[in-house]
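Changelog-adjacent note: as of this version, every example in the card shows the full chain rather than a window. The one below runs 145 residues end to end.
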Amino acid sequence: MTDQDILDRLNAHRPACLYALNASVKEMNREEKSAVMSFTIPLDFCHSGNVVQGGFVAAMLDATMSHAVFSNIDNVVALPTLELKVSYLAASLAGSFTARGEIIRAGKSIVFLEGRLYNEQGELTATASSTAKVILPKTSRSTQE
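Full-length structure tokens:
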């Protein structure tokens, strides 16, 4: 499967929450174990005028870090987040964003991830780190014994 095939598959199977965030996977890099996503956040997701509510900022970062895993580790069925830390560096205002997520370390069932969120001017507005559990397809124990 080519990188473009993987990007097409990821974008075709986006969960509804990513449609709400106007999200799409733009790039993946197997060498860097990373993924890049774009988002467009409307005023409906803001408070205090046009400041994006922090939960949506966290969702953009979480989604991008997860897609780094989905695009770089084969056969991942699910990726529940075990821990998520977000640092809000500047107000994220309604509009277009680009996020980059990368795998820092991957074990057999746990991955450590980092993400960065940039506004349309290229300014870093938030960072995140995450620990997630990699769920792979179940294999038959009887064939392993």
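Structural remarks: The longest helix spans residues 54-72.
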